[in-house]
Amino acid sequence: MATTPRTNPSSIHLEAMGACQLRCPSCPTADGSIRPAIASGYLRFERFRQLLDDNPQVRAIELSNYGEIFLNPQLLDILRYAHVRGVALTAANGVNLNTVKPELLEGVVKYQLRAMTCSIDGASKETYPIYRVKGDFDTVLANVRAIVEFKRRYRSPYPVLTWQFIVFGHNEHELPAARRLAEELGMIFKPKISWDDTFSPIKDRAFVMREAGIHATRDEFAQATHVDYARPTCHQLWNEPQVNWDGKILGCCRNFWGDFGGNAFDDGLVPALNNPKIAYARRMLMGQEPARGDVPCATCDVYQRMVTDGRFITTSELRWHTFWTRLNGFARRQPRLYGVAREIYRRTGARRLLRPWLR
How many separate domains does the chain show? Predict the structure, then answer.
């Protein structure tokens, strides 16, 4: 039987909150699809502390995924304890910033949350809520400005702020305005391809490519680059595995349809990340084993395209991703280095060089 090495990562993804207050039309959180695997709950501070105390090798944690981290009532304690322990936290997968307690606006700066991606799909109060249903554009900007002011007071580069703009047909005309506003706020501007081609499809492909440098759909991206847009998420099973707020092993940030068994809190992080089912999944992704119905990856369209194309995860690909993951984790732990590197990214547009590790 083929084998893959055991994983003992220094970076993990750990969902802080399994719920969100918005109702974005294409989001599986909004329509309830995530409930069977992720459920509606939040990461408890005692569990978080236990995880850090039992796993000193973990030095970087991504907190955001399908839920809104600022709805976690114990988030401030989590930020504070990670800071004391020297563990770098990020919210780079995204937050909506619609509901934030004032003490948290200061806390993300005071306790040096390294990076935060703000999901703002519009540049006006009329356009923004078309996708971010129940969201308020003015509230989001006020919260961003409050964080920027706290960064000034603390003389801190953290958190490095990114404005993520999912491009739709209804907001593509606001790309230039959003970019200018992001620059005024000292934010990195990051246009993103939607995962739902049916909701408000892009109208002017040439304009979007010129203004955002992205393709209209993920299929067009794949055709142009011969790379699956979501393929990098598969690498997380080795280097940055996703753990649910209740300790269940999800493997990657894309998975919301089933867990791999084991529990990071009850069984221990390393044993849970190397249980037989997820070890089998890693071999599946490398083409060493056939698909198995009880493994969540079997139903994922990214894996199914691997099977169709015969382009499975390779050892050299994993080595390259491991290098960038470790470099990213190292940068997140260094005072000011991460912020300086992100500022270079923002000011020079050195995206091709820095994109692999500056999320």
Answer: 1
CB atoms under 10 Å from CB of 156, counted, come to: 15
CATH code (residue 173): 3.20.20.70
Q: What distance in Å separates the CA atoms of residue 102 and residue 146, rounded to the nearest whole number? A: 9
113: left (phi over 0), alpha (psi -120 to 50) or beta: beta
Q: Residue 213 class from Cβ within 10 Å (0-12 exposed, 13-18 middle, 19+ buried)?
A: exposed
Residue 342 placed within a domain:
yes
In the numeric block, which tokens belong to residue 209? 């490519």
Please state, for a pLDDT cut of 70, what percent of the chain lies above it: 89
Q: Which domain holds residue 328?
A: 11-262+322-351
* Residue 165 belongs to a domain: yes
Q: Is residue 290 situated within a structural domain?
A: no
Q: In what order do the strands lie in the sheet with 188-193?
A: 188-193, 160-167, 115-119, 88-95, 60-62, 11-14, 242-243, 249-251
Q: Would residue 313 count as lying in a domain?
A: no
How does the average pLDDT of the chain come out, rounded?
90
pLDDT tens-place string over residues 202-221:
999 999 999 999 999 999 98
